């Protein structure tokens, strides 16, 4: 399943984008979409509309537009809960050891990360910031576009050449890989077509 995450301005200001993302990945989540943006006031107000009546709403919006944020779509088993577990409690003072907020958050407002609280809100929040074609996950059918683009750039062809094969069968391209392709003529030398880890899911 998927969830939505924001690395908040207090974290981007301290150059913690990578450190936070590492904790998300180590918790079994995969970043399947990510972009660094400066939110507009309208965006922040719209995103946090459910908190409109709260006394902290104004400050929350001011904080969220005080610097860049990184919005992400995370994929993994039971992604909403998995993310909430690794984030820790809203208030870092209440967060468990080893959580992102315990490790990095400065205060209940500057609490480094946001994460969706339900599958339903995850869907709404993802759609607030991302178009479907910006999300490239293991279950994305659009990764075939990546294969075609890679073929055009000669990536696949050069791999074929190096691995001594002459043809690929696009239907064999796994959903998350642009390079794991079947040999049709000569046998593939073991290891020769191993794609770099970054191309593979699992
Ligand atoms: P987040 O998960 O982004 O959802 C709403 C945010 O409001 C929450 O994290 C906190 O950062 C912020 N928030 C919640 N309670 C307070 C509070 N009492 N004072 C300031 N900010 C708060």
Structure description:
The structure is a single chain. It is built from nine helices and four strands; from the N terminus they run βααβααβααβααα. It has helices at 9-13, 17-26, 41-47, 57-64, 79-87, 100-104, 119-129, 143-152, 155-163, and strands at residues 2-7, 30-37, 69-75, 113-115. Residues 169-186 and 191-199 have low confidence and may be disordered. Bound molecules: adenosine-3',5'-cyclic-monophosphate. Adenosine-3',5'-cyclic-monophosphate is lined by residues 51, 56, 59-60, 90, 108-109, 111, 114.
Which key terms come to mind for this protein?
single chain, binds adenosine-3',5'-cyclic-monophosphate, alpha+beta, 202 residues, 9 helices
Cofactors, ions and other ligands in the entry: adenosine-3',5'-cyclic-monophosphate
Low-confidence runs: 169-186, 191-199
Mind summarizing the main beta sheet?
A: 4 strands, antiparallel
What is the gyration radius calculated from CA atoms? 20 Å
Q: CA-to-CA gap between the ends?
A: 15 Å
Layout of secondary structure:
Blueprint: E1 2-7, H1 9-13, H2 17-26, E2 30-37, H3 41-47, H4 57-64, E3 69-75, H5 79-87, H6 100-104, E4 113-115, H7 119-129, H8 143-152, H9 155-163
Antiparallel strand pairs: 1-3, 1-4, 2-3
The chain binds adenosine-3',5'-cyclic-monophosphate.
Residues 51, 56, 59-60, 90, 108-109, 111, 114 line the site of adenosine-3',5'-cyclic-monophosphate.
């Amino acid at each position: 399943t998927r969830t939505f995450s924001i690395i908040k301005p207090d974290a981007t200001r301290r150059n913690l984008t990578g450190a936070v993302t590492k904790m998300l990945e180590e918790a079994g989540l995969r970043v399947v979409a990510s972009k660094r943006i400066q939110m507009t006031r309208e965006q922040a107000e719209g995103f946090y509309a459910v908190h409109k009546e709260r006394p902290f709403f104004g400050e929350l919006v001011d904080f969220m537009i005080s610097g860049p944020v990184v919005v992400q779509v995370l994929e993994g088993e039971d992604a909403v809960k998995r993310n909430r577990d690794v984030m820790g409690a809203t208030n870092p003072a209440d967060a468990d050891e080893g959580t992102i907020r315990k490790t990095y958050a400065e205060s209940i407002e500057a609490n480094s990360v946001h994460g969706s609280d339900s599958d339903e809100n995850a869907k709404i929040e993802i759609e607030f910031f991302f178009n479907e074609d910006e999300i490239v996950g293991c279950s994305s059918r659009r990764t075939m576009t990546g294969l075609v683009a890679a073929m055009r750039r000669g990536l696949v062809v050069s791999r074929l050449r190096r691995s001594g094969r002459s043809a690929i069968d696009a239907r064999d391209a796994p959903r998350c890989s642009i390079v794991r392709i079947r040999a049709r003529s000569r046998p593939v030398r073991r290891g020769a077509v191993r794609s770099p880890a970054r191309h593979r899911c699992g």
